[in-house]
Every structure is written in structure tokens, then in C-alpha cells.
Write a structure and sequence with these properties.
alpha+beta
Length: 173
């Protein structure tokens, strides 16, 4: 028709869109709101767990990151108690590749001796006075870590475990 213009209005555009578009938009917004809500609850952060075992008068308690994310600080702490104290030194044996997921600042106290066979890392510490020994591992999850690890930490005499704890760290994206 002569004299009419073909100017589209907002109503024309709205009518031309697919009927599923508003539902897709709502679903995306709901998913984003759910993700923010989960983040606000702290469910996506680091979660520390505790595992403990006793045998032959020794108790080994481990605080470790059960769930962690790359780049975040974590807690890894071993406490060994034994009524009557310890001998000259004590040795912890840890699954060697477990520590590959961490960027480390070191052990506190530092081991007096470290050695590793192909699979096990042996950390020997000068025994403290008293009935309790505590070692902390100051570390954070490597930014490139994508998968967690399972491990065992044990108090050993020679290479024989006296008391041991198995645990697993999962890494979230």
C-alpha cells in the first residue's frame, strides 16, 4: 500500500518471538539464583573433616580437607597421643602423591628427616616432651588441581604401621 510505512514496534517484536523464550529466560535466571544461593550457604567452599583411629595405646587424629577448591587454603593437621610419651622420634607415613594437589608452605614443625620410596612419604620428627605430638601442613590447593586424592596417614615404627587413618579429598571446580 502506498503511503504506509513498515516500522516495527515492540509489540510486533514480542509477537514474533518463540513462545518458549520467556520460559528459557526464567529457567536461566532461576538456575543463576540457585547457584548464588548455594554459594551464599558456603557449600562451595572448603570443608574440613576429622578422622581418628586408636591402636596399641596410640591415637592418631587427622583434620583434613574433605572438600576443597583450587586456590583456597586448607587444613591438614595430625595429632598423635600416647600415654607415657614417645621415644626419641616418631615417623608418619603418608601416601606420597597425596601432597601433589597442594602448593605448600611447609610442615610445622619441620620434619628432622624426610624420605620417600616410590609410593610412601616418610616424615620423621623429633619427639616432643609430653603425651601429644601435633604437626600442621601449611598449604593451599594448587590452582591447576582438578581431581582430589585418597590417602593414608600412619604412625609407623620402622615401616610397620602402628595406627593408620584413610581419607579422601575431593576438589570442586
Amino acid at each position: 500500500m502506498p503511503g504506509t510505512s513498515a516500522v516495527a514496534t515492540a509489540a510486533d517484536v514480542e509477537e514474533a518471538s518463540h513462545p518458549a523464550v520467556p520460559w528459557v529466560r526464567r529457567a536461566v535466571l532461576a538456575a543463576m539464583a540457585l547457584l548464588v544461593a548455594i554459594g551464599l550457604t558456603g557449600l562451595l567452599g572448603v570443608h574440613t573433616s576429622e578422622a581418628s583411629s586408636s591402636h596399641d595405646g596410640y591415637t592418631l587424629t587427622l583434620h583434613y580437607p574433605a572438600v576443597a577448591r583450587a586456590g583456597l587454603d586448607t587444613t591438614w593437621r595430625v595429632e598423635v597421643t600416647h600415654s607415657g610419651g614417645f621415644g626419641k622420634d616418631l615417623t608418619l607415613a603418608v601416601t606420597g602423591d597425596y601432597f601433589d594437589i597442594f602448593e605448600t608452605q611447609g610442615f610445622h614443625p619441620n620434619p628432622s628427616e624426610e624420605t620417600r620410596n616410590g609410593h610412601i612419604l616418610y616424615l620423621t620428627f623429633t619427639a616432643p616432651p609430653g603425651d601429644t605430638f601435633v604437626v600442621d601442613f601449611d598449604a593451599y590447593i594448587q590452582p591447576a588441581s582438578q581431581r582430589g586424592r585418597a590417602a593414608t596417614v600412619a604412625l609407623v615404627e620402622g615401616t610397620t604401621p602402628v595406627v593408620a587413618v584413610r581419607y579422601r579429598t575431593r576438589i570442586l571446580p
